[in-house]
Amino acid sequence: MADIRSNVADAKAAAIALSAKDTDTKNNALNAMADALNKRRKEVIDANAADMKAAEKMKAEGELTDAMVKRLKVDNDKIDGMIDGIKDVIKLKDPVGETMSTTELDDSLMLYQIRCPIGLIGVIFESRPDVVPQIMSLCLKSGNAVVFKGGREAANTNKALFNILSEAAYDKDIPKSVFCIMETREDISAILKMDEYIDLLIPRGSNEFVSYIQENTKIPVLGHAAGICHVYVDGDVDEEMALTVSLDSKIQYPAVCNAAETLLVNASVANSFLPRMTDLFIKSGVEVRADAESISIAGKDKGIKEANASDWDEEYNDMIISVKIVKSMDEAIDFINKHGSGHSDTIITNNMKNALKFTSLVDSSTVLVNASTRFPDGFRYGKGAEVGISTNKVHSRGPVGMEGLMIYKYILVGNGHVMKDYAGKNGKKFKHIVSDKEFRL
Fewer Cβ neighbours under 10 Å: the N or C end of the chain? Predict the structure, then answer.
């Protein structure tokens, strides 16, 4: 425990030094990280092969789900994606020191709101080795130190990635100890208690895992506990579009948090749309669980299972979808807000008035119109990479990139000003003039 606390304390101290590094230094380190990962990719793939072998055994024994094993796999294509993600972070504007607002309180008394790093980020994750380069690169560019704790199923891969990337960064004048990795199961409990050092926790994993983190720490947590996403097929709809988007939302990558778990179909198009849609799902290997009305319309001889009450609140992360007929868009919106997780939900419609109402009333971090639920992602949103997807309503929401690792401070610059001059009924009045002046000393 003493060593863990010492390592975390060192990372906290290194965060201060990192926050003062200039953009060129940080970008040079990121370039070195991308180059090192490209040159040493065999080390990562070999380490991942060992993890995959152990993971298959763990899956057979019921310790890992199929979805977790799929997320664990790292090949050359996955490494190419990691490298591209790091290079995209290089292209992003350095947010540290950015002037967010300026107010002239009085003559020669200027108040600046300046963007700055949060400090020390704790990242606890399951089965996703690509979390290491994603978050390490974003933390470096944003001036934050980071403590990683991955699952034992990915221990070899995580360690290989961490060593390659951190060594490359330290060779380019990045402060030692700014990156830290924990390797034992007991480290999780220790990290959750280190609120005096760790400023923000980012968990990546299953619903149960994220909920456990949220419930067992005083440290602020950024993330989502579940990804229960919906596709709503409106009464005024291009059915060919609805078929394509609904299928993609489910099968393009069913093991992730933005895959659709429930399909809602307006009753006015159910007779024509549902038989085709369920046939398409079944042909694609998707298990369909539907309400009684949907089964009656789609066909009782297709092997569709009757959904029970728990299906509407289930994140399958698998080739399973629940299907329900709704009488109106209002019913669909109410259903989504009741059973969804506030992650990503889409409407398929030709009616932009309906689309506007849907986007206004669905209370989710991403609401889509005529597009697959699979789009919400930091990389796809142009954030370079992603620290996670948040369903929080404070600090950051939706796919969170570098902006989610930033906070701000106020800097007040005067010229011998004292508060007594502004106190009392005869005191001077503040001007409060908004200015576009950048912070400079």
Answer: C
In whole angstroms, how large is the CA radius of gyration of the chain? 25
* Distance (Å, whole) CA 364 – CA 196: 32
Parent domain of 258? 229-369
Q: Can you give the pLDDT at residue 395?
A: 76
| Alpha helix positions (H), 340-395 | 352-361
Tell me if 73 sits within 8 A of 120, measured CB to CB.
no
The DSSP letter of residue 221 is: B
Q: Are residues 89 and 115 in the same domain?
A: yes
Per-residue pLDDT reduced to its tens digit, 17-31: 999 999 999 999 999
Could you identify the residue written with the tokens 């701000």?
408
DSSP code per residue over 100-124: EEEEEEETTEEEEEEEEE--EEEEE
Structurally, the chain folds into a number of domains equal to 2
- Residue at a domain's end among 342, 369, 396: 369
Q: What is the pLDDT of residues 391-420, one digit of tens each?
A: 777 777 878 888 889 999 999 999 999 999
Q: At what angle do helices 76-91 and 131-142 cross, to 10 degrees?
A: 10
pLDDT at 1 over 50: no
Residue 212 shares a structural domain with residue 233: no
Beta bridge partners of 113: 101, 410
Report the run of H or E that residue 435 belongs to, with start and end: strand 433-435
pLDDT beyond 60 at 2 = no
Contact status, residue 119 vs residue 145, Cβ threshold 8 Å: yes
